[in-house]
From TrEMBL:
Reaction equation(s) it catalyzes: adenosine 3',5'-bisphosphate + H2O = AMP + phosphate
UniProt keyword tRNA-binding present: no
Required cofactor(s): Mg(2+)
InterPro entries xrefs: CysQ/Inositol_MonoPase (IPR050725), Inositol_monoP_metal-BS (IPR020583), Inositol_monophosphatase-like (IPR000760)
Name of the protein described by the UniProt record: 3'(2'),5-bisphosphonucleoside 3'(2')-phosphohydrolase
Keywords: Magnesium, Metal-binding
A Pfam match: Inositol_P
One Gene Ontology biological process: 3'-phosphoadenosine 5'-phosphosulfate metabolic process
Binding site for Mg(2+): 82, 105, 107-108, 219
Length: 272
């Protein structure tokens, strides 16, 4: 199974690369990178003594920064973010009728952000367009000093590893990944943040990311768009396409991997 960047017609959640406006990708990267700088500053200002205060300041200030920039520079667009998802208006229910929706996670891997020395946390900014799906996105990994984006290619390495490394949640590794570990002789690699895990796949640090048991659209939209744009596989763990800007943003499971690992991994996680 291979998920080349497709279109709504092929069931893939991303549009063909030529459907993206380069200005939107640049804007996504500037926003993710800018929020990342801010999050690094907040870490430096507050320190690690009060984890709860650090998490909450990071989340709120990054979210305010991102929503402020979208409102100022893309005033006609709607937003789906962890904050304000239930409200009416632009940052709320208006997104269901909108043609352009920014799907934002201001701080993914909040737990890891509050732990000194950890770099597995991220900022996600993705653009969804009606009839096209995800067209532009960026994922910043501020503590790793990189921002990955849909207009760059992160090539799939030529060789498939004999013992695949599968990234899983540090705190909630799913039974499906443990099943794949046994079936494929894989190695599980615990890591925080959905964005950091997907970016570890496209960087070749691991070969797959298996998640199940709960997540929301903002946790995966930007990382999945970046992965699909470079020809990696990204679907639900039953192989179905990931769909974004749905009325219920709950999107509980995810499989991202090199295309030639998709079939064996899907079989393993589904117990075939
Ligand atoms: N069972 C679950 N229910 C809801 N969200 C979950 C979840 N498991 C993981 N997530 C979310 O997915 C992101 C990555 O999690 P993990 O590091 O455990 O893999 C985190 O996002 P946030 O940090 O933005 O809250 C986390 O909250
Ligand atoms: Mg998140």
């Amino acid at each position: 199974m291979h998920d080349a960047p497709g279109s709504a017609a092929t069931g893939a959640p991303t549009a063909a690369p030529e459907a993206a406006d380069p200005a939107d990708v640049a804007f996504a990267a500037e926003l993710a990178g800018g929020a990342g700088e801010l999050l690094l500053q907040i870490r430096a200002e507050l320190g690690f003594g009060d984890a709860r205060a650090l998490k909450s300041a990071g989340d709120l200030r990054a979210n305010d920064f991102l929503l402020g920039r979208v409102a100022a520079e893309r005033p006609g667009d709607a937003v789906l973010s962890e904050e304000g998802k239930g409200e009416a208006g632009r940052v709320g229910t208006e997104r269901l009728d909108a043609d352009r929706v920014w799907i934002i996670d201001p701080l993914d891997g909040t737990r890891e952000y509050s732990e000194e020395g950890r770099d597995d946390w991220a900022v996600h900014v993705a653009l969804w367009q009606r009839g096209l799906g995800l067209t532009a996105a960026a994922v910043a990994l501020p503590a790793q000093g990189v921002t990955l984006r849909t207009d760059r290619v992160y090539p799939v390495p030529a060789e498939r590893p004999a013992k695949p490394r599968i990234a899983v949640s540090r705190t909630r590794p799913p039974a499906e990944a443990v099943a794949a570990e046994a079936a494929l002789g894989a190695e599980l690699v615990p890591m925080g943040s959905a964005g950091a895990k997907v970016m570890a796949v496209v960087a070749g640090t691991v070969d797959a990311y298996v998640h199940a048991g709960g997540q929301f659209e903002w946790d995966s939209a930007a990382p999945v768009a970046v992965a699909l744009a470079s020809g990696w596989h990204a679907t639900r763990i039953d192989g179905a396409p990931l769909r974004y800007n749905e009325s219920d943003p709950y999107l509980p499971d995810l499989l991202v991997c090199r295309p030639d690992l998709a079939e064996p991994l899907l079989a393993a996680v589904n117990g075939h």
